[in-house]
Amino acid sequence: MTLPEVRTPPRQEERALEVVRARHPLRWLAAAGVLVLLAMAASALITNPAWEWDVVGQYLFAPSVVRSVLVTMELTVMGIVLGFALGTVLALMRLSPNRLLSSVAWGYVWLFRSVPLILQLLFWYNLALLYPRLSVGVPFGPAFFDFGTMDLIAPLTAAVLGLALHQAAYAAEIVRGGLLSVDPGQREAAAALGLPPARRLFRIILPQAMRTIVPNAGNEIIGLVKGTSVVYIMALPELFYQVQVIYNRNGRVMALLLVAAIWYLILTTALSIVQHYVERHYGRGRA
Amino acid sequence: MTSHPGSPMVELRGVHKSFGPLHVLRGVDLDVRRGEVLVILGPSGSGKSTLLRTINHLEKVDRGSVRVDGRLLGYRQVGGRLHELPEREVLRQRTQIGFVFQAFNLFPHLTVRQNLMEAPLSAQRRPRAEVGPLAERLLDRVGLVDKADAYPRTLSGGQQQRVAIARALALEPKLLLFDEPTSALDPELVGEVLDVIKDLARGGTTMIVVTHEVGFAREVADTVAFMDAGRVVEIGPPAQVLDGPRHERTRAFLGKVL
Fold this sequence. Notes:
The complex is a heterodimer. In chain A, 73% of the residues lie in helices and 4% in strands. Chain A is built from 13 helices and two strands, in the order αααααααββαααααα. Chain B is α/β, with parallel strands linked by helices. Chain B has helices at residues 48-54, 87-94, 112-122, 128-141, 157-169, 187-202, 214-220, 238-243, 248-257; strands at residues 10-19, 22-32, 37-41, 63-68, 71-72, 75-78, 81-84, 97-100, 175-179, 206-210, 223-228, 231-236. Chains A and B meet through helix 10 and helix 11 of A and helix 2 and helix 3 of B.
């Protein structure tokens, strides 16, 4: 006995059915509203002569402004490099089985995260009031070199010191989080293969920790670019201080604040682009 | 490390290990001859993996001794005391013992080739010109030459475990330890990994394999040990332990898994 044929040939409309996407009228309405708001904002920026765009253009690449941008970049780079170097040491101390090392690292992070940056900067700036002379030598013993604190801690040194020590506290936590995010199996595999400790850290653990470290570090670096502006209290000619000097002289306050804002935008945009490529580098081997 | 042909490859005496209040190993004695394949079976939590990890000092023992190729592992005996060796020495001893993990633990940011070359280059300080061809030979042996420049995440579980075995072999170890090498694999991928291990067993490599694969034990093992509650309760040739177990715990376990 054979079963009756129940299959029917595919009908015309089953073979070539067209997909019609759902319409979203409210979405279109919202987009139109935002477009109007954007146009109003642009018009307010361009048509109001009080912004003084000609003055902005005049000062954007003025030699004194460009020099101050370089000072800002210098402060940022030194703060980040020294901050993350010290922060990595602190993170490793914090993870050490030695209780003294981990407690000291904890105490450092506690102290430098708790005291406002601006206060720390003034501290370093006025260090000479506390210790008029600094020396290098045997602890509690004879000194080999001896400096006047005023000579050693120039405003730039004080600023870099303050920014780096402050940044180190945050960097320590970021690096520690990164190290903890690496699968413990990686450490075990590296140990089982007999890799030397430094090689384990720099070749196996840190590159994997970077995946977690980089996005957080990116935040910190961009924060520091802008954070350098508090250094103006030490009369250091970085970007924010410099525009203040200029507008105090010529009274063009808004135009010069705009100049500073544009430069901060340029610097942070450049850093965001760099961050994208660094993340891609450390993301290799991951889907 | 000098070789002592007369002594067993692995010699455990009275090994104890606790994690806090948990007494995981309760006095293990074990000998593994040169070229012998020992398979350790036992229920979860019986201490199999911990025992294996003491044999390359990933876990330090609380009491007792572990000798590999006649040399005390991780310690130096001075009179009646054991002094912990400096880390450099421990690392050197480990390069003579290959370890294959349940979860592979390949380095995900390095290519397959870099995974294989890392330890010979940086732990054994062998020249690159020698290590490159070695990596190539080992990949050929596990059938993955075409994956040399791939990253581990792009491979199947079975392929990753074969790479991990090749990585362990790259140190040209005297002894290979396998910690449940197929437990993390999909069933259809178990065979390809077991085939590689069987091939090594036939080649005369001394190895200790912790596994749940009773069929593999029957086929490959020279000796089967059954562990329960931190002790080796039964040990002998597979025919004896698997087909005529004398201990009721062994019988109960085999009744469940067979």
